[in-house]
Design goal:
InterPro entries: NTF2-like_dom_sf (IPR032710), Rng_hydr_dOase-bsu (IPR000391). This protein is of the alpha+beta class. The protein has 3 helices and 8 strands. The strands form 2 sheets. Strands 4-1-8-7-6-5 form a 6-stranded mixed β-sheet. Strands 2-3 form a two-stranded antiparallel ribbon. The N and C termini lie far apart (42 Å).
Amino acid sequence: MSAPSQDLLARMALTFEAQQFLYAEARLLDTQNYKAWLELVTDDIHYWAPVVESRERRHRAGHYVAAADESAYFDDTRATLGMRVARLGFPGAWAEVPPSRMTRLISNVEVGEQGAEDIPVRSCFYLFRSRLETEEDSYHGVREDVLRRVDGELRLARRKIIFAQSVLTARSITTFL
């Protein structure tokens, strides 16, 4: 059996690094360390969750993900993410008083072909959120990310969140996915 090629070893190392980045990001979000999480995103971040519509199979393979200029659950920049983080830290943020308890599962991490500086990464997610005594929500789907090295460290430059659900039944989406 021959030794793995240098290209394969480099790809495996990059995949491992991307996985560890996503797992660390999930831990920051689960522990509601939003300010530290915000440091993981680039200044030009596009953080977007388009609306998903269920359709008959004869129309676009059974579902439709809204285009960039159509409806979205959120469509954030670094500035709007910063405002959301600040709002979560405000004592009057009633949707998070008391704070939610959350657990995220990140799986099926696939690293695409690396460009000059951008690294495409696809992953699946499951988020369970519990609040008060009986309020429970779950979100699941696919994330299409672009990671970028900034000063030698991976940072999140783009995130497109495609929910598996076409109707989100939660009262609000106060967290990050």
